[in-house]
């Protein structure tokens, strides 16, 4: 089987998986910005931002509301449509919040961005995560930042998953995958952070996030 064909299949699986994921309910996520993003990004000067795997757009909308010219890309047309509807409801125009439905592998832009974020860019099937991380890094403008957030473990309330889960990347592994040249990049933060959340049954629970925050210095 040719490599190209294999890739194509995975791509379709990706769309089908996420469309199914978003199609199951009206809204999957809270629509609120991730608190790590809020903490790390709030001190930065607003510029242009790109959220890869933006889902229903919570982070993009928060960035736009805070003065960023924010773009979100997601493989799921349903998620992107919801994000755009939400932006319209908030009175944000396409200059402030722009959403694109595309597979990142197929998406090429001449632009670079002052901030590129990938949050929980993980799925229960194999996909070339390291390639996406490296592609994300190429989209960062000089002086700009890249923020990669991942689940570092299953939530404390989760039972044993019924399908094999991909390995949870550690901050060190994320950095190794990124292959950043130390002359070009400064690592501002590479750590596992715990945050408190509400479990589905209403009990307090904890989540561990792997946080990698780097700045392109050249």
Automatic annotation (TrEMBL):
The biological processes this protein is annotated with in GO are: methylation
> Which GO MF term does the entry hold, naming one?
methyltransferase activity
User: Keywords assigned by UniProt?
Assistant: Methyltransferase, Transferase
Checking InterPro entries in the record gives: Methyltransf_25, SAM-dependent_MTases_sf
Q: Which stretches make up the Methyltransferase domain?
A: 50-144
Which PANTHER family does the protein's record reference?
Answer: TRANS-ACONITATE 2-METHYLTRANSFERASE-RELATED (PTHR43861)
Quote the protein name from its UniProt record: Methyltransferase family protein
């Amino acid at each position: 089987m040719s490599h190209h064909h294999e890739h194509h299949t995975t791509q379709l699986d990706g769309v089908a998986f996420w469309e199914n994921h978003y199609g199951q309910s009206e809204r999957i996520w809270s629509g609120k910005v991730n608190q790590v993003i809020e903490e790390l990004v709030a001190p930065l000067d607003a510029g242009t931002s790109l959220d890869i795997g933006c889902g229903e757009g919570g982070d993009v909308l928060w960035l736009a509301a805070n003065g960023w010219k924010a773009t979100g890309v997601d493989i799921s047309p349903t998620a992107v449509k919801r994000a755009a509807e939400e932006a319209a409801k908030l009175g944000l125009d396409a200059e402030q919040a722009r959403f694109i439905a595309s597979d990142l592998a197929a998406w090429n832009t001449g632009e670079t961005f002052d901030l590129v974020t990938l949050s929980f860019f993980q799925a229960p099937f194999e996909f070339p995560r390291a390639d996406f991380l490296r592609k994300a890094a190429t989209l960062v403008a000089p002086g700009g930042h890249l923020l990669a957030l991942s689940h570092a473990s299953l939530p404390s309330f989760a039972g044993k998953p019924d399908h094999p889960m991909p390995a949870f990347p550690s901050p060190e592994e994320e950095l190794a995958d990124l292959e950043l040249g130390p002359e070009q990049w400064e690592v501002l933060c590479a750590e596992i952070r715990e945050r408190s959340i509400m479990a589905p049954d209403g009990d307090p629970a904890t989540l561990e996030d792997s946080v990698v925050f780097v700045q392109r210095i050249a």
